[in-house]
Amino acid sequence: MTQSMPFVDARDICVWTEDIPKRFLDLLKLADPLAIYISSPWISEFTEPSMNFLDILKKKNASTIILTQPPKGETRRFLKKLTQETKTRVYVSNRLHAKIYIIEGIKHRYVILGSSNLTQEARGNIEIAVAISGSDIITKRVIYSYHYLKLMCRLWE
Predict the structure, then answer these.
(1) What pTM does this model have?
(2) pLDDT at 157
(3) Residues 6+ positions from 44 with CB-CB distance below 8 Å
């Protein structure tokens, strides 16, 4: 009798409870992404220079899709800059609530599912996320689900 391989090794699953935005951006800085997928109803710039999302995306030069709520004020200016200076497309929906972060690369694959928005404020909140690394099949299945969410959003500007 052959034993089937698990979808993911338990060592590749972590539970995060502190500073989820920073942990995601730290992973992104170390990864070699071809594509980045983010679903966060609220997005903001970060005060810490090492968390400059615009600079990180410029260095990675990966195709990025962001699902968020229709932005206003500073967030609108920030997302406009992201779409102009990186390979980022933004989709919006007033009803979006899902928080999903995916880094898809040749060597690195990460899926983070949790409660945290990608905001400065979320860094101090009580949040939780499950981070799964390395699993191609889980990454592809979550990306498929992500695209389903994207269908419920509209392209922003």
Answers:
(1) 0.93
(2) 86
(3) 74, 75, 78, 118, 119, 120, 121
